Sequence to fold (575 residues):
Amino acid sequence: MSSRLTKTLACLGVLTCAVVVAPLGPATVAASARQPPSAEERLAAYDEALVALTQELSYLVLLGWVKEPVPDGARTLPAAIGIEPMDTADMVDALAYLDGQRGPAALQQLRAIGERVPTQVDQVLSPNVSVHAENHPVIGAGVYLQAYDLLLGPWSQLVDAGIVPSVAVPPANGPTVTEPAPGPAVTLAAGTTATSATSATSATATIPATNPATNPATASATTPATTPATEAPLVSDDSSAGSAVPFALAGLAAGAVALVVALTLRSRRRAGRSRRGGAVGDEVLDAGRTIMAAVDVDGFGWAVAAQVTRLVGVPGGALVDGRPFAPSDRAFPDTATLERVLSTGREVRAHGATLVPVVAGGRVVGALVAWTDDHRAGEVLGVFAPLVGAALQGLRTRVEHEHLAFDDALTGVGNRRRFDRDLGELIGPAGRDRPVALAMVDIDHFKQVNDTHGHPVGDLVLRHVAAVIAANVRQGDLVYRYGGEEFAVLLPDAPLDDAWRVVERVRLAVAASPIVTDGAAGAPAVPAVTVSVGVSATPPVDAAAMVRLADGALYDAKTGGRNRVSCATGPSRCA
Fold:
């Protein structure tokens, strides 16, 4: 290749040799007076453009909308950045969002900081796909790959200059974050008990003092029930309804993280820097993929610590969101040392340890720790740290989107979708040898509450009852809003007698806990509500049969006078 052509391609790569001839108007003069963007702002803009471009091309490939033969660079792209095939409708939703919103926004972000945008980049980031699953377009991949290379040039230069890459995945298109709704206040002190005067077997009920703002989004489907969060997630209050968009965007988040991993390593390989202990690009990439498999912060922290140890060959640890993860025989660095890393965002070597900052979402959120003062360990961790930050951002996004998809917006407990999934898992082949009970809990005369006090108070009652149920079930039991004023409780490893004792405690607690409004002058006084409960248990091992039997028992409880527990089969006290 001639030196002239080499220089020309280099100019295209860094986007500094392009000359745009245009008349100098007011906009041009204003732009020239603008302060030049920081390196971090430039990297963020190129981050976003690369994410939007590669994800749009990935979904075009997965949908089969790319002209044959598909270039290898496009054919392998979805797997390379971690995007897997989904339902066609979900992928079309994701593609429509990328082409119509995220791509144009990324293009605008580049222009807003004064970057020269090549024609190919402008073409692929502008709306250019007519998204219809039935009558889809056929797109050429070549222009996408050209635009990718044009964006990668400046991105790589910035990363190699030491700027930390990060990916900010925007929330689902449409809804916006709202202020969290206040939780139900309960006047009885925590630990107050109520006993049944009418039951042959007394049951002790716990009245929660408050509705703690725990976030169910951080718990898996089998996490023990806790008092639900009052923060309202970004979905409709209809617990049985759900959009495909959260699932599609969760795929986008995972792809964004994997893209940062791939781009960082490609950039480092271009630089040709040697790494200590065989920690070459492929090993760091493997480490990045490993930590991306974590499903919660605990698993993530320990996975990062293990990979630090593997990469640098000495005991390693991590500080993630203020929580230390380290071998038991190692004392974590002192607070002053950690503060130096977190406040300056710079590598620190002190007291026989090397600490490298981790950045996620544009801020320092933790550090990687290796118990050695060898500067080469800092070089290795410097390559790994951006991948850790990107993976943490992706983990947070996945957790958020699971929360949107599987938790009730009003009460914070699981929704109907989560209930259906969990019930199927509990009574499926993997759990068939374990007894499982199901309780359907319905608020008595709830329509009268809405008619008398209004729907805002009705919402308060629903949150209150959800909190009381969650506070009085066992560790490991699972609480859901089934629909309307009806809740469901799954009780793993609970024979019918045990399930009855648990839900009787729930019934007593609800009846004994008055509902307190916001305390404003003229606020209505709301009397305590009661609940009726129907219980079924395995066998049968069929989900529909369990629900049908529990519903039948709930009907018996309603027609038998309400404020009582009825079982589908079992002891006479439950009849």
About this structure: The domain at 274-404 is CATH 3.30.450.40 (Beta-Lactamase). The longest helix spans residues 375-406. The chain has a mean pLDDT of 74.
